[in-house]
Amino acid sequence: MHIVLVLVVDSSTPAVTAALVEVADHGVVMRAQRQAVDAKAHGELLAPAVHAVLGEIGAGPRDLDAVVAGLGPGPFTGLRVGLVTAASMGQTLDIPTYGVCSLDALGRAAGAGRILAATDARRKEVYWAAYDGGARITEPDVDLPGSVAERVAALGVTGAVGEGAHKYADVLGLPVRDEPMYPPAAALAELAAERIRAKGPSERLTPLYLRRPDAVAAAGRKPVLR
């Protein structure tokens, strides 16, 4: 039986996640995990979390066989921390990187039924997608909660998961499950497991921003005041 050690990272939400999993022929086994919730400290928290999970099992970066990263959707600044970390480690260690839509991890972990997975997109909006039995049935999108409520009602969605669903539960009008609140590392790994087992080629980690960054460069120079 062939077993590979995989680092999983996700910074698409206020939860900064790093985990180590073993991917074998029979499934995915969690070895170590760290998660801290702080929307303003992704850059400060992720590297120590990676170091901590490696140390917990007595492993080093050179023991890794692959890296899995949550692609979002998520706010620009936080999301790129995880993707840059994953891409840099993949290049430095010469190991493949694989990307997974972070909403898909929420949807997979939610399990049976037609479920809305929603995360907080700020600006009074949510990133969202709908799932049936863990399989995505809509493309990831960003909308006002009221618009999402109308769209998922037409799809027969009966429940919701995720931080965004909790925040706007009154508008969405759906029963919201306590968990998962944030994209689970185990689900991210499971969604990439087939590619890992097949030793698929390394993937470019393209972020799902779905809209322009909050901060943009000025269109032109302002005249100097005298």
TrEMBL record:
Keywords: Transferase. GO terms for biological process: tRNA threonylcarbamoyladenosine modification. SUPFAM superfamilies: Actin-like ATPase domain (SSF53067). Residues 39-158 form the Gcp-like domain. GO terms for molecular function: transferase activity. GO terms for cellular component: cytosol. InterPro entries: ATPase_NBD, Gcp-like_dom, T6A_TsaB. This is tRNA (Adenosine(37)-N6)-threonylcarbamoyltransferase complex dimerization subunit type 1 TsaB. It comes from Phytohabitans houttuyneae.
